[in-house]
Write a structure and sequence with these properties.
It is a single chain. With 481 residues, the chain is mainly alpha-helical. 61% of the residues lie in helices and 4% in strands. The strands form 2 sheets. A 3-stranded antiparallel sheet has the order 1-2-5, with no helix packed on it. A two-stranded antiparallel ribbon has the order 3-4. Helix 11 runs antiparallel to helix 12. It starts with 11 loop residues before the first helix and ends with a helix. It has one domain. Strand 1 and strand 2 form a beta hairpin.
Length: 481
Amino acid sequence: MSGASPFATMTRAEVWALAYLALPNVIFLAGWIVLPIGQIAATLVAAAVFALVIGRRSLQRPPLGPLIVPVVVIAGLWCVMAGVGHLVFANSDWVVRDGVLLDLVRRPWPVTYQLDAVPTVMRAPIGYFLPAALVGKLWGIHAAQYALLGWTVVGVVLVFAMMLCDRPTLKPALVRLAIFIVFSGMDIVGTITHYNPHPIGEHLEWWAFIFQYSSLTTQLFWVPNHALPGWIAIAWLLGQDVRRLPTATAILFVVFAPLWSPLTAIGIAPIVGAALLHRLVVVRPPGFLRELLDWRMAVPALACCVLVFPYLVAGSDKVASGGNADIRWVGEDIVPRYIEFVLFEFVGFAVLLLRRDRRDPLLWAAVAVLLALPCYRFGPYNDLAMRASIPPLVLLAIRMGDWLSTPFVRRESGARLIAIVLLGIGAVTPFMEFARVFITPRWELNERASLPDVTRGTHYLTPLDQPWLSHFLRVPEADRR
């Protein structure tokens, strides 16, 4: 490849971040798709990512150096506190995540069930779990638990490394990491508005009844499977010069995300799209088409579009969806509910950041996504708003950290004070999440619970008798006998 390769100047953290998102897709293709199609596709995707890694020509930024110790320690402690691996208390959503991991470890792939005599397949965003499940197939469920913890820590370390791509000194680095961990909307204000104040350790996020934008700590503690792809893609994107954005690389960060979380990918796509559109319109790069034809992007994109995405949407038409204004008990209250929600959750941060840089296309895209999401619901718990909001929220968090870690400027003193107050009020939410770990007893993974026993609905499962599933999913070994 020539020196003009769109991948040539990726840093080591960026390369491994892309590989981190890609690995579950390779495992899925090899283990779930019918032979020999799945093995061929997995080999080609792995070869494309490997060619990308070895094709990296220069590292324009130095490694983390002395920052690596605090980054790894903070990421490790944060993930342990999140309940990953069950070393401490884990939130109730882990009952379902444990069921997914257990079945991925103990059952042949693809994972199927007989529910009321109907052949059914696990149809879920399983990307987060697949590497740990592969470890579990070799060494058992407890090894899978610890592998999942290690896998999560690696993901958070990669996010932190890309957030610190300019290699600041220790103090500004710690400021950025602290803001990232405590970033949240003002859930405590909404809670006091609608309820009596909650006791220490209570979950505050559902104060708005029909929508939720989760704090970053809530995302890690409850849904790391949805959080990590959004965090990684946005941390990578914010480390780029939008005018020189590598088109093919940006597309791969979107392509590899849906197996982790289709709804999070919906939040990533418009922000990446805004960056690509800005580059296309403002810079008019002459090699844009050539980048799109680079086989290291085209092959994985084609494999995922044909062999991964159809699995994720199979039977999704049965999932509850519709406009939030159509909910009977909401009715005419939707407008004041909406205004209150966006004001308490993110508008203050958005105004402060846009005041500093009105020409930031990524910031405008993030705000547009956050304004649009409350209008529509998808999933039994309005999962679209919760998960698709992850990328724009993490963009606001990283931008706030970048700003407040810079040297003090007198003309910004008022704006900085407002930002610190907003962060302080919002920090009550992650404080509650951390507090729950210390006041609630730890519980063990239930090794006898299968996914159908613990799922809160049928959106994790779908009948196997559907055209794409029947033709492209492998037949499990148990069904061959």
